[in-house]
């Protein structure tokens, strides 16, 4: 197709001198040229992949988003597990539920990319305040979880229930939501409730001591 010769008389109706001449031959030639160019781009110019690489670079270049107090209270930035040595327990442990409402903390905070045959979520949440102070930050996820990230991107700024994320099982929906939340990329509709977690190893030690 691309190796076919040009029409024998194309010089008679193409070129600057003929640019204002309205003829069927010229119209057919231009339409054929545009169709070939579109096909060439579709087959040999991966536009989406090229744009993703620019998006990846932007993630590395940009500063992490500034968060309001409300966003902090409904994200990992205002929570986070910590060990309480006095009580011998883990404090501020939270868990996602299927009905938890979530959204991206910012639409421009991540880029979903396929490279090296793996799916990666590049983000700027952990970027340093110094330009390129850290290497590009990303999370690797399974290809099955990629549609869930796409839905979060497309639904922003609206909240969606974790159970509505496109994945085969509830466990997978909770998995991708928890991964993104723990990385600081998700904000919930309401602050997650803390779950009290006892140190089972210390309990076992006390039982052994009592015996």
TrEMBL record:
InterPro entries to which the protein is assigned, alphabetical: NO66-like (IPR039994), WHD_RIOX1 (IPR049043)
Cofactor (UniProt): Fe(2+)
CC per GO annotation: nucleolus
Co-factor: note: Binds 1 Fe(2+) ion per subunit.
Residue stretches making up the RIOX1/NO66-like C-terminal winged helix domain: 63-192
Similarity comment text for this entry: Belongs to the ROX family. NO66 subfamily.
Functional description taken from the UniProt entry: Oxygenase that can act as both a histone lysine demethylase and a ribosomal histidine hydroxylase.
The name this protein goes by in its record: Bifunctional lysine-specific demethylase and histidyl-hydroxylase
Organism: Dreissena polymorpha
């Amino acid at each position: 197709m691309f190796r076919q010769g040009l029409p024998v008389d194309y010089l008679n109706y193409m070129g600057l001198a003929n640019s204002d001449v309205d003829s069927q031959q010229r119209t057919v030639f231009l339409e054929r040229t545009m169709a070939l160019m579109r096909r060439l781009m579709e087959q040999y110019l991966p536009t989406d992949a090229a744009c993703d690489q620019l998006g990846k670079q932007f993630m590395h270049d940009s500063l992490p988003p500034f968060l309001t107090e409300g966003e902090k209270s409904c994200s990992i930035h205002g929570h986070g597990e910590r060990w309480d040595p006095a009580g011998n327990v883990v404090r501020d442990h939270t868990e996602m539920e299927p009905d938890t409402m979530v959204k991206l903390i910012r639409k421009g905070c991540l880029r979903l990319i396929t490279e090296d045959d793996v799916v990666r979520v590049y983000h700027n949440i952990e970027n340093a305040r110094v330009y390129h102070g850290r290497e590009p930050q990303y999370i690797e996820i399974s290809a099955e979880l990629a549609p869930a990230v796409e839905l979060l991107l497309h639904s922003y700024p609206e909240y969606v229930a974790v159970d509505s994320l496109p994945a085969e099982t509830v466990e997978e929906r909770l998995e991708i939501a928890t991964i993104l939340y723990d990385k600081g990329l998700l904000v919930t509709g309401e602050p997650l409730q803390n779950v009290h977690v006892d140190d089972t190893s210390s309990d076992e030690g006390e039982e052994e001591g009592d015996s």
